[in-house]
Amino acid sequence: QLQLVESGGGLVQPGGSLRLSCAASGFSLDYTSIAWFRQAPGKEREGIACISSSGGSDYYAESVKGRLTISRDNAKKTAYLQMNSLKPEDTAVYYCAADQIFVCRLTMSPYRYWGQGTQVTVSS
Question: Which of 64, 87, 107, 123 is the most buried (most CB within 10 A)?
Fold first, then answer.
């Protein structure tokens, strides 16, 4: 069974950091691009970071550029999202997505595999 499971969410104060993990099971991350999306209450799901299958290219939404870093460890079948300098507007459910595409995208359509999401709340 193909599955992605996110972890690492929680409550953090403004300016704090979190590292999210996305663990894959049932398939290899080789030749697979991975993306992180988030969805805040009442808003559409938005792509915020992605990393291409080779790991050589990554892309970020303007709203998170310089604060978030996506990475991957194919041997562990896990992707990560390091989030620093968090702001209250970063509060959302965070999802990882994956598919066998060479170049990643920050749109939902190329990705067939999705996790269930992990809640991130930034509040004092």
Answer: 64
